[in-house]
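Key idea: predict the complex, not the pieces.
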Amino acid sequence: MRKRDLLLGTLFLLAAWEALSWLVGSGVLPLRARTNILPGPLEVFPVFLAELPTALGGHFLVSLWRVLASMLLAVLLAVPAGLVMGQSPGLNRLLSPLIYLTYPVPKVVLVPIVVLIFGVGDLSKIVVITLILFFQILVLVRDAAANLRPELLQSVRSLGAGRRALFLYVYLPASLPAVLTALRVSVGIAVAILYVAELYATRQGLGYYIFLQGSSLFDYPAMYAGIMAMALLGLGLYFAVDWLERRLCPWEFAQ
Amino acid sequence: MISVRDLMFGYPGCPPIFQHFNWSAAAGEAWAILGPSGYGKSTLLYLLAGLRPPTAGTIEIDGQPIHRPRPRTGLILQDFGLLPWANCEQNVSLGLRIHGFYGPDGKHAPLDQRPGDLAVRASHWLARLGLTGVRHRYPGQLSGGQRQRTAIARTLALNPDLLLMDEPFASLDAPTRESLQNLTLELRAEQGLTTVVVTHSIEEAAFLGQRILVFGRAIEVVENPGAGGVDYRDQPDYQGMIQVLRGRLAALTDPLSAPAER
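Result:
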């Protein structure tokens, strides 16, 4: 994707937002509200910039920390588990039904239980997001390891590689694209779950901020500033994973 | 060099592939294993490489029984043997890095291994196989011939004395295949290698094998003493050998009968 196209897309979205805001605020639509429930970017941007150094910035950093910690924890737990399962058909047969049954369960419904077990602090939020990322990474890493061509493994073994060297020189690098793909597809879900998790038992984080501004203070421009911060958080993580993929997996982009 | 005694092997649920198979090869010999699919050519190579254990019988190489890959045996497969995420140079130095990882333990790497400078050894073999210009490319960016030369460089960088090749040039176009066959002969002479090449191509067996194992319902040895030089292709003996091999192959693999026990 070219930078110019990305910029044009951004401008189009902002223009559409502003137009929609005007439409909602003008009273053309049969919406009964005393204040504009959809302030446009021209109204939200100044609030965003004003809030950022004070309240919003702090909430943003708390949310960022929670997602990053979850991503790291999920990678540290899921990659070894996926590699072990991918390497051992017997273990994979044993554990696959468990994964199959638990993978589609929406983890977000577990938020109250996780809060109960892990308390009201950061840990419960991190655990919920980790749960979601864990399964995504586990499945993709397992498949990447299981689908390595036997010819590749045999020829590396013929160079003298035992279990440890195979792990280091073959399985680990082979799992890297799977980890990054899993992170990329689940970063959106992770941020969505973060929002839900931050509605519970916390006074910090963008989820709390958005809910507070929207439902308690009815400060819509501030609420949208929070939504923007959350969107930027997701987008930033998405870009970061993209960048990491280009840095760590250059062969995937080589022509 | 190679001594196979009373070898028994079969895949579970299938008829046995080898029953009391005996074979030996002297150091420096150039062997080809010729035959159609399903008669166990590649299986024999994997057994020799120590990648599969025989059901019964013994395989000795250089006097040592083979239970696992032997550090000084090189194996080259048709394709897919290169790490897709490593560039040509990193692939060539892979074996050296693996040996360095274990150190000279006699199990994964030869006991007498001199550590040497990894980069120097890798670049020597890159240059010898004409890969210096493409050393930074990934396997996906290399031609089939370049990929196979990378695999050869990677194996020879480990200073092997025995080279096992499984259909090494089957997926290449004719001119590339011929030039790599010539290269194989040159490298064999240069490094004093014992070679065993598995192929289903009669021409390749006649060109690369001074002694040829023909696999079919039985296993026969065909002597081909004229082979070994790159000009052999132009000699009448070569054409004659192709006729001989074609005849033996037809006699041993009657299409109406399935692969049988031996």
